[in-house]
C-alpha cells in the first residue's frame, strides 16, 4: 500500500515539474528587441567621394628650341607673372640665324627688284617687236620666281625671330612656380619628356571626383536635368588630415558621358584658395549634402539583405513580419531613407534584424517603441 502511495506521489511530482518546465519554455519563446515607431523626418545626408585637386591653370613649361640654359631667373615656389622670363637658352646661334635670315631677305629683295626692272624692259622691247613672246614670258616667270624667293626669305626671317624669342622661356600664366631640376649649363630641347618647370594658378582650385551612374541619375531626378543639377547646394571638402576646408565649393561641370570601364560619371567642383592651403596634385574627399524632407528613416541595424534585396521586420500583432523595402540610393552608412515598403505609424525592430526569423514573437514588454532619433546627421 505504501509502495502504491509513493508511486502516485512520484508521478504527481513528475507532472508538476513538467508543467513548470512547459510554462518556462512558453515564457522564453518571446524575446525583447528594441522597437521603433516610424514617423516622417527631415534628413540631410552627407556622402564622401574621393577627389583629386588641381590648380585652375596647371601649366607645364617646356622649351620650344634646343640649346644650353645660360640663365635661370625663376625661384622655386615663388609667385610668377604672365610673361615673366623664367629661363634663358643660349641665344648666340639663334642671333646668328636671325642675321642670316635678314641677309637672305635683303638679297631676295634685290633679286626681286632686278627681275622687276628686267620685266619692265622686256615688255617695252616686246611692244616695239624687238623680242619674241618667249623672251617676255621668260622674264615674267623670272619675276614670279624672285617674288617667291622673297616670300620664302621673309618667312624664314619670321621663323628666326620666333626661335630667338623662344630662347627666353616665359610663364604663360600668373601663378606659383613648382620645383625644377634644370640649372645653368643643362642641355634642353623641344623633344624632352620632362617639363622645365610647372606653374600653377592656384587662386582657385579644381576638384575632380566621380559618381556612379545611379547616383547621377538620383541627382538629375532631384533637380530635373544635368544643367539644373549645377545649382546644387554648396559642397564641402575634407582634407587628408581629417579637417574640413573652411570654404565651400560649387559643382561647375558634370560630364555627360559615362566611363565604360568604371561605369562612373566625372564631376568638377571649384573652390577658392586665397590662403593657398590647397595644393595642386593633392587629394581630398568631397562631401556632398542631400536634403530629404519628411521621409521615413530607419537604422541599418534594423535591416538585412537577401540577394541584393533589403528587408525589415515590422511588428504586427506581437510578431515580427519580414517586409521588403526600397531605400534611397544614397545613405550615410548608419541609416536608410525608405522610399517604399514602410509608412508612418509602422513599428519595426530597430536592431538585431539579422538574428530574427519571420514570425518571431516580440515580447509585450518591448512594444513601448523607442522614439526615432531626430537629430540630423
What labels describe this entry?
twelve-stranded antiparallel beta sheet, elongated, four-stranded antiparallel beta sheet, alpha+beta, 377 residues
**Which sheet architecture does the biggest sheet show?**
12 strands, antiparallel
* Quantity of strands, as a count: 18
- Report the helical percentage: 25-40%
Radius of gyration: 42 Å
Structural class, by secondary structure, is alpha+beta
- Seen as an oligomer or otherwise, the chain set is single chain
Shape from CA axes?
A: elongated
Cα separation of the termini: 78 Å
- Amount of beta strand: 25-35%
Number of helices: 5
Q: Name the poorly predicted regions.
A: 1-11, 13-29, 364-377
What does this structure look like?
- By secondary structure, the protein is α+β, with helices and mostly antiparallel strands.
- The protein has helices spanning 2-28, 92-127, 133-166, 213-223, 226-229, and strands at residues 35-37, 41-61, 67-72, 79-80, 85-89, 168-170, 175-177, 187-188, 197-212, 236-238, 250-254, 264-272, 283-299, 303-306, 309-316, 319-327, 335-340, 347-349.
- Strands 2, 4, 7, 9, 10, 11, 12, 13, 14, 15, 16 and 17 form a twelve-stranded antiparallel beta sheet that branches. A four-stranded antiparallel beta sheet has the order 6-5-3-8.
- α2 (92-127) runs antiparallel to α3.
